[in-house]
Amino acid sequence: LSNNATxxxxxxxxxxxxxxxxxxxxSAQTQIVGGLGLDxxxxxxxxxxxxxxxxxxxxLDRVAEVQTIAELSRAxxxxxxxxx
Amino acid sequence: MSLFSKFDDMRAIIExxxxxxxxxFDMRFERILSATEALLEGRPCLLFGTNNYLGLTFDAxxxxxxxxxxxxxxxxxxxxxxxxxTYCDHALLERRIAxxxxxxxxxxxxxxxxxxxxxxSTLAGREDHLLIDADSHASIYxxxxxxxxxxxxxxxxxxxxxxxxxxxxKDRPGGRIIVTEGIFSMLGDSAPLREIAAVKREMGATxxxxxxxxxxxxxxxxxxxxxxxxxxxxxxFVVGTFSKSLGAIGGFAVSDLPDFDLLRIVCRPxxxxxxxxxxxxxxxxAALARISTDKSLSARVxxxxxxxxxxxxxxxxxxxxxxxxxxxxxxxxxxxxVRFWNRLIDRGIYAxxxxxxxxPASLSLIRCSISAxxxxxxxxxxxxxxxxxxxxxxxxxxxxxxTPVHLTRSxxx
Lengths: 84, 413
Fold this sequence. Notes:
- The complex is a heterodimer of chains A (84) and B (413).
- Chain A is mainly alpha-helical.
- Chain A contains 5 helices and no strands.
- Chain A has helices at 3-16, 32-35, 40-54, 60-65, 69-83.
- In chain A, helix 1 crosses helix 5 (69-83).
- Chain A is globular and about 35 Å long.
- Helix content of chain B is 39%, strand content 16%.
- Chain B has 14 helices and 14 strands.
- In chain B, strand 1 (29-32) and strand 2 (37-40) form a beta hairpin.
- In chain B, helix 4 packs parallel to helix 11 (278-293).
- The longest helix of chain B is centred in the last third of the chain and has 20 residues, at 296-315.
- The radius of gyration of chain B is 22 Å and the shape is globular.
- The termini of chain B are far apart.
- The interface between A and B is medium-sized, with 16 and 18 residues.
């Protein structure tokens, strides 16, 4: 993993911390649906936090394609590149 | 693994709800007695979960119009307007809706769900950007899924967040279409439309407002929160439903845009479904005439809503942010919400149980809708029962209040 990807994953985990139930460990391979203890609306609310942290727009169809934290991290990296 | 195994979680939820009392998704009324009462489990029950805001489902004029329409036009249209043709009464109802809103054109749909599905998915093309309030109704989300546009949520009722997300799109090509609602269906809160309209003007966006819960209940002429906030000229499309204040079923969209009628030949949820039957068109036309001339209905539903809201707030319930014809009681957790809902039914009150993920912010709610057809005695009876159940379940302080929460004349329902 590049430093950049590791940093993005760390930031995602930081953003998730106040939203997920206690006791859930998040790794790069954690499934976003089913692995975080969040319902579908809570996941979309978390995505808004991600958009604001990285100053990008993540359209809902793109959110639907992302299954793990690592995939979300890669999507963020790609969207940041596209925005600059 | 069966095709249905993906719904195992839902099956478990239903089984757990049934084990706690009743299945909230399969309530069966033996008989509807009036706009506000029904027979449930063999007993009379007060209806506080119907969205029958103006109580017109048993209005004599609307029923007469329905019966006349069936005799004159038959029981159904048996197809869509593009194939089977438009009945004169479809066109008349569209003219009446356009006149009611003071807009150039109106289109009617077979349900309110299809109105959102059709309008939003057709207007927003591949290059366009849909910006929807995070608490939008499922019909708006489904419209987004059907559309090829890029969909961005903005934080609920937050015009600054909307502006921020619009600015983030920078100079990307494509239109910007903002979608919000007049009154939101779960908490009954209304949108800050004046501020949202200002963002729309500043950013050169298009604005769609769904007034499903505010038609007939807000605004001097019953035209909803857009009228109430004085921004009707800023709104490009108003969407609404016939299934709430107008007491039937169906949906509509109105607009001043000259090309609006082009939608009739490109909007698939309009084109490929049967049109509204004469009975519904008849009753909706009569209901629209009634609310256009009788302002007492909206005054009455708002007065009842204020009465319920202030008494429940005074008793100590945590409620949605403002009194509207939807009053939502926030429960501490799902289990308490389920118990509360079951006990209300045990005592003869039917309200809606609303649980996550159908609710904003993972809230568990008892959602009440108020009707102009309720009597003050019925409102007071509901207050009295809700407060008693609230104390029993310790949602409220179990000690009785020093002063009565509200005048509670105990009348038979």
